[in-house]
Specification:
- This protein is of the alpha+beta class.
- Helices cover 17% and strands 39% of the residues.
- The chain has a 7-stranded antiparallel beta sheet, with no helix packed on it. A two-stranded antiparallel ribbon has the order 7-8.
- A hairpin with a 2-residue loop joins strand 5 and strand 6.
- The chain is globular, with a radius of gyration of 18 Å.
- This is Cyanovirin-N domain-containing protein.
């Protein structure tokens, strides 16, 4: 009885781990744009943790000028995130998912 229960518990935990996914596998955060353009109209950019919780939100016309985000020279892609006195490097990742219907544009670690 113990052996059967033990192996069932192991099988269930392996299945759970295999089915769990992060919005940015191997990264701490993902950034999604929910409106506007980075160098144009007002927009909202949200930083999500891997459980799709919003941990920071930036609103405005140019998020690259607010001190939270670093961007490429054309100001079209986030390259860095400064959150809670920690600097994270950001880059696009083909494995990125979405949160609350918003596609993750870059992942940060």
């Amino acid at each position: 009885m113990f052996t059967k229960t033990f192996f069932s518990a192991i099988a269930a935990s392996v299945l759970f781990v295999a089915s769990a996914s992060a919005i940015c596998p191997g990264y701490k955060f993902g950034i999604a744009q929910s409106g506007g353009q980075m160098n144009g109209n007002n927009g909202v950019w949200q930083v999500y943790d891997n459980s799709c919780n919003v941990v920071h939100q930036e609103t405005g016309q140019k998020p690259c000028n607010g001190g939270v985000f670093d961007c490429n020279s054309a100001q079209t892609t986030f390259t860095g995130l400064h959150l809670n006195n920690v600097n994270y490097a950001c880059s696009p990742d083909t494995n990125a998912d979405s949160c609350n219907g918003q596609a993750i544009q870059v992942c940060c670690h």
